[in-house]
Write a structure and sequence with these properties.
By secondary structure, this protein is of the alpha+beta class.
């Protein structure tokens, strides 16, 4: 109980003082104050005592058939973050001891996500201030299965997240730099100061910097970037590659090219490339991770982590759908492609969950062109709160190795540096009862014939390392044998021979054309990838790719065909796209339609005429994919980008549309481009045919005509909205169309709806969009009839409140009614109160404070502590609660936003997978919800030109504009050019004081349901 109380106090109380060391990063008094007063979020340090390495080993509960060994501990490894093995089988460990503040830098300010702005860019090591990070090498010198030797290779590093050995030296990820330490004689003593291979990675959040580098099977160095840092990365060849947030990137040591491989994910802090060459990463959500196709756009928290790299992506891929315990998070991720435990772990994901002190084992199940995931029994769990697996790898011995950060504190969202920097463990999981050891070896000195023989090894590590060694040694004498192995239809590891051959420069058109017929789909896929990476293809090779596009049955090969087509010039790319576009069956694939669009979009402005030629054949207009992810999206993209050339291209595409339904595709694309606003004045070549088409559709598709800004359509639509005899569904659809077009015809129609009796459903359609119009009569209509038409229906009443709060001048009218008790203050949701406060008007704030004192919207620390003690006393005293009664209370108070056990809303995070059996989690989450706002569920306040203010979760942000979803589930959109400002709120949408008014018995019932196993 003492630990429970102290840890909860640590969450809820302010930090009173800071030591000189802790205050050192503060660059000014304002930052120092934040560091002193910022309330910590998440899993913070508590008084749970650490266990000795031997005691910690006894705290593991292993899956039957497995055992675990302690391989290293403090002081040899302290805060180990990343592991890799070199060609001699030695373990390289990166110790992240400088975390969380870079040495020698001062923080000038923080943003609402606690991202820092530093006073300068640190110099690359060994220049500048020396940090505490270092790279150590551990070795089993006698082959008995223990690490009996260790040494420090590089020290004085400053925010170093990963190190790998190969390609002539040591590569260290030390944001903002990727460093290369040359070591020609392989003595682990760098020959000179490091070369800066890459510069420009972000440092704002040292929990989300560039990390997890590894050599890919194509010779590139792959790495991940976390979620809350931005970058502007340059190499000797690639200049100013800009990004925001999470992605997988790669860099080629020879060509010096840097590029983004795939965007999206959680807080990406792992990189994995499996035996087939597919790229994955773990995540900080409840799913297992992300599967990356080359050049893809993936989901992320677009508000906090920035918009998509491509504003015209028009969609994104999400994490792999996961059937699991629903707990978060599994950021460290590896795939077991070893041999020692292939019978039980083969091809499976092994993912450490540092929050839950455990490791998952999960099956990947093919699901069209990607995967879904289902969990097996966990590999291990631990009762030791300090066990924090931050890296998981399959070693050359076939075991699963785990790097244990070893600390009670896990959350970075607290500027006080109280990490346990002197602790750390390395573990190895092996088959139960089996002694595991490897004799010392050195692949750098192995004969070429032996390396070639290793390409048939049963474990990926050996095959890949042998292929890399052949490439690094430039063993072109191996090419004939490698080609023979790659061509062999009976070789189960033909892809490894192909990868080695490609890295050695032996990839020819003749070989590629032949291998496109190889029976192994992953050989075919890799050939296609190599062609795309080359960026150019001969006429014969393009013809072969077209032929493959028509006959290929494996969905992953088809996705790569389109990924590679995107990288080729239009004359090579579009013939392939044309064939793929005709595969109607792929319209049901999870990924192919969007990848097809991205291949088309890449040529949208560079090759307009070629794209128009693509759709000049009448047959193209009958293809499912051409219609859904070609014609309409292309029109939308050109219209959104604007300019004479793009508008002319829209007109030419419209001219190619011969049938009314085809013309509708083009017009709908234009309408979608300007959704939420009027279509601007268009050139005659587009305006005339557009007007003619709209006129022809006034009866059959009135909503579309309205969205295009047609005045006649707007008048007709307004008449229908105002007609109580018209079908309700049609009226509601036209309400949205009129609002998005901004037509003034909407106002009298909306007034009639808001002022009239009945039509509850239509009122609910009008209320969320009425504030688009600067017309006080709309607010007056609601307030005049409030008691008779709105007050009695809770949902309608809430929607009315939200409408009135979304314009500053309307807030005053709203408050007048509250002053006169016509509107009950207790019925106004707390997030609406915060929305009214967001205008920053002192007079309004005073009036708001009168009805909603601060204690009712933001509890003081004393109030939080008192409420915590009240709840704690209730749930730990008296009889056990009734979970069925608790379920009813949950439904009444929480389910509008949260899902639990498959039931409830989606405004807030699904609670099923959190630490539900831990009272500490619930007390912090319910009493002080703003202390840790789950990524993706933070509130944003958007100020719109013309006076409207929107508040909610940011669902979408792209070239078109934004979409916000409020706590009532209503969606609000705004055009990009109409958004005056968009700011994240530090306050959760979830109100404080949710437990107020509940009796002790009610509390026991509610917590019985919340904590139900």
């Amino acid at each position: 109980m003492l630990r429970f109380v102290s840890s909860t106090l640590a969450l809820l109380c302010l930090t009173a003082t800071l030591s000189a060391e802790e205050a050192a990063p503060a660059g000014n008094d304002e930052v120092k104050k934040i560091m002193q007063e910022f309330q910590g979020r998440g899993t913070l340090r508590d008084d749970t005592p650490p266990k000795s390495p031997k005691e910690a080993l006894q705290a593991f509960n292993m899956r039957p058939g497995f055992d675990i060994d302690l391989m290293a501990s403090e002081p040899v490894v302290e805060q180990p973050l990343y592991m890799s093995w070199d060609s001699r089988g030695r373990l390289w460990v990166t110790l992240y001891r400088q975390y969380q503040f870079p040495a020698g830098l001062k923080i000038l300010k923080y943003d609402q996500h606690l991202r820092a702005v530093f006073d300068k860019v640190p110099e690359p090591p060994p220049k500048g201030e020396k940090g505490a990070d270092k790279i150590v090498v551990l070795e089993d010198t006698d082959g008995d299965g223990t690490l009996d030797s260790h040494k420090t290779v590089i020290e004085g590093l400053n925010i170093a997240t990963a190190a790998i050995k190969g390609a002539g030296g040591i590569w260290v990820m030390n944001p903002p730099y990727l460093l290369f330490y040359p070591d020609a004689n392989d003595d682990d003593v760098p020959d000179a100061d490091p070369e800066v291979a890459l510069k420009g990675f972000g440092l704002e959040d040292t929990h989300a910097v560039a990390n997890s580098i590894q050599f890919g099977p194509d010779g590139w160095i792959y790495g991940a970037n976390g979620s809350t840092t931005k970058g502007n990365v340059s190499s000797k060849v690639s200049k100013n590659v800009k990004f925001e947030g999470q992605h997988i990137w790669r860099y080629h040591p020879k060509t010096k090219v840097f590029e983004i491989y795939g965007e999206g994910g959680g807080n990406t802090f792992s990189t994995e490339i499996d035996a087939q060459g597919r790229v994955f990463s773990g995540t900080n959500g409840s799913q297992r991770g992300m599967h990356y196709d080359q050049g893809m756009s993936g989901s992320k928290n677009f508000g906090k982590h920035g918009p998509a790299l491509n504003p015209y992506s028009f969609g994104y891929f999400d994490h792999m759908v996961t059937k699991s315990d629903g707990k978060r998070f599994s950021q460290t991720f590896c795939i077991y492609d070893g041999d020692l435990m292939a019978d039980t772990l083969g091809g499976r994901i092994v993912a450490g969950n540092s929050l839950q002190n455990m490791c998952y084992v999960s099956r990947r199940i093919a699901d069209t062109s990607t995967f879904r995931v289902e969990d097996d029994a966990p590999l291990l769990t631990s009762t030791d709160r300090w066990f924090r697996p931050v890296d998981a790898k399959v070693g050359p011995d076939g075991c699963v190795w785990l790097a244990d950060w070893y600390d009670t504190r896990l959350s970075h969202v607290r500027p006080v540096d109280d990490w346990s920097k002197k602790d750390g463990r390395i573990y190895r999981v092996r088959p139960d009862g089996k002694k595991v050891a490897l004799k010392p070896f050195d692949l750098q000195k192995s004969p070429t014939t032996e390396l070639i023989k290793l390409l048939d090894h049963s474990a990926k590590w050996w095959r890949r390392q042998a292929a890399l060694e052949l490439a690094w040694r430039d063993q072109k004498s191996a090419l004939p044998e490698l080609e023979k192995l790659a061509r062999s239809e009976k070789n189960p590891h033909a892809i490894d021979a192909l990868q080695a051959l490609h890295m050695l420069g032996g990839f020819t058109d003749e070989l590629a054309i032949d291998l496109l017929k190889h029976p192994d789909p992953y050989v075919r896929r890799w050939v296609v990838k190599c062609v795309g990476d080359a960026g150019i293809a001969s006429t014969q090779l393009v013809a072969s790719l077209k032929e493959l596009s028509a006959r290929e049955e494996h969905p992953e090969v088809r996705t790569q065909i389109l990924c590679s087509a995107k990288r080729l010039p239009a004359e090579s790319s579009l013939p392939i796209v044309r064939v793929m576009m005709g595969r109607d069956a792929d319209a049901a694939d999870q990924r192919i339609p969007l990848i097809l669009w991205w291949a088309i979009e890449d040529k949208a402005e560079s090759d307009r005429d070629a794209l128009l030629t693509l759709f000049s054949e009448p047959a193209a207009w009958d293809m499912k994919l051409a219609r859904s992810h070609g014609i309409q999206m292309l029109t939308k993209r050109w219209a959104m980008a604007g300019g004479k050339e793009n508008y002319d291209a829209c007109a030419k595409l419209l001219a190619l549309a011969k049938r009314p339904d085809d013309q509708a595709l083009v017009i709908e694309g234009i309408a979608a481009a300007f959704e939420g606003g009027k279509i601007p004045e268009l050139p005659e070549a587009l305006a005339t045919p557009l007007a003619a088409f709209i006129k022809s559709r006034l009866d059959s598709d009135l909503a579309l005509a309205v969205k295009t800004g047609n005045a006649e359509a707007a008048k007709k639509a307004a008449d229908i909205v105002a007609d109580p005899k018209a079908p309700s569904a049609k009226r509601a659809a036209l309400v949205v169309a009129l609002a998005e077009s901004g037509s003034k015809e909407a106002v009298p129609a909306f007034l009639k709806v808001l002022s009239g009796a009945g039509d509850v459903g239509l009122k609910k359609a009008v209320l969320p969009v009425a504030a688009r119009f600067e017309e006080k009569r709309l607010a007056e209509a609601v307030l005049k009839g409030y008691e008779a038409r709105y007050a009695g229906d809770a949902a309608l009443r809430d929607a009315a409140h939200r409408m009135l709060a979304s314009r500053k001048e309307w807030v005053s009218y709203f408050l007048n009614e509250v002053d006169q008790w016509h509107i009950k203050s207790e019925q106004v949701a707390p997030d609406i109160v915060r929305q009214m406060l967001s205008y920053g008007d002192k007079e309004l704030a005073t009036r708001i404070e009168k009805h909603w004192p601060q204690k009712n919207t933001l509890l003081s620390d004393a109030q939080k502590q008192a409420e915590m003690e009240r709840i704690k006393k209730a749930i730990h005293g008296g009889a056990a609660g009734d979970p069925e009664k608790g379920k009813l209370l949950f439904t009444q108070r929480c389910a509008i936003c949260h899902t639990l056990f498959g039931e409830g809303g989606k405004v807030g995070p699904d609670l099923t997978g959190y630490e539900r059996t831990n009272p500490e989690f619930w007390l912090a989450a319910t009493i002080a919800p703003s202390m840790e706002i789950r990524e993706g569920f933070g509130a944003y306040v958007a100020k719109i030109k013309g006076g409207q203010v929107l508040m909610g979760i940011l669902d979408k942000q792209d070239a078109a504009g934004i979409s916000l979803r409020d706590i009532a589930g209503q969606r609000h959109t705004a055009r990009a050019e109409d958004v005056e400002s968009l700011e994240a709120s530090p306050i959760s949408l979830m109100p404080e004081g949710l437990m107020a008014g509940l009796s002790d018995a009610d509390l026991r019932d509610l917590f019985a349901w919340l904590m139900k196993p």
